[in-house]
Amino acid sequence: CLWSNLAVFAPLSQEVMAPDLERFNSLEAHLPASCLEPCVICQTRPKNGCIVHGRTGHLMACYTCARKLKKRNKLCPVCRQPIQSVVLIYLS
């Protein structure tokens, strides 16, 4: 799951507009707790790299780590299926 750029890439400040903050809080309230945890590989970036295999995918890594797994011909860490592609996920 992807955290809003507001929360991940910049500290909250007085410059943040109230509607953006409200949208972020609303999104955060509706996501499963596992989506709010960081990438299971690097433990620093948000989960935004969906590992695709067949008609399904798993969202447990950031895009950077997911691409590295694909490039190194690794299997999906969740189900051990070959990784066909990696998709960058945006939530709004």
TrEMBL record:
Belongs to the MDM2/MDM4 family. GO terms for cellular component: cytoplasm; nucleolus; nucleoplasm. The keyword Calcium does not apply. One of its GO terms (molecular function) is ubiquitin protein ligase activity. Residues 39-80 form the RING-type domain. GO terms for biological process: negative regulation of apoptotic process; protein ubiquitination; regulation of cell cycle; regulation of gene expression. This is E3 ubiquitin-protein ligase Mdm2. It catalyses: S-ubiquitinyl-[E2 ubiquitin-conjugating enzyme]-L-cysteine + [acceptor protein]-L-lysine = [E2 ubiquitin-conjugating enzyme]-L-cysteine + N(6)-ubiquitinyl-[acceptor protein]-L-lysine.
